[in-house]
TrEMBL record:
InterPro entries: Kinase-like_dom_sf. The keyword Transcription does not apply. The lineage of its organism: Bacteria, Pseudomonadati, Pseudomonadota, Gammaproteobacteria, Enterobacterales. One of its GO terms (molecular function) is kinase activity. Belongs to the methylthioribose kinase family. Keywords: ATP-binding, Kinase, Nucleotide-binding, Transferase. Gene3D superfamilies: Phosphorylase Kinase, domain 1. It comes from Klebsiella michiganensis. The keyword Translocase does not apply. This is S-methyl-5-thioribose kinase.
Amino acid sequence: MSQYHTFTASDAVAYAQQFGGIDNPSELVSAQEVGDGNLNLVFKIFDIRGVSRIIVKQALPYVRCVGESWPLTLDRARLEAQTLVAHYQHCPQHTVRIVHFDPELAVMVMEDLSDHRIWRGELINNVYYPQAASQLGEYLAQTLFHT
């Protein structure tokens, strides 16, 4: 059984090597924290060629920008992981794949979607995606009906 501790970049690499589902885990050599939020640590894990291969995301037990005076439950990571696994079962074409989840460490390993764009930013920049409505509709129909 693991005991919760906040990951460093090297912890994230070691964890990805063990649980990332990569054929040659020793090729995973570095991590960069990319989280811009207040609730989680998010690490991109890179291989020896500098290609981002997988994401390690860990829930923090507090609001990051405030500190430990604003505690949060780590169980939210379990809820997120379970939801994503269920949604992936019913709509894999529009849901990130969870490779591994550890409730004790509140950490999940997931596929890297670096080639995707964050829709919020695209909307702010007035970028139009003609398939967005049908894709969102398909996702909502499949996940809401089946869960």
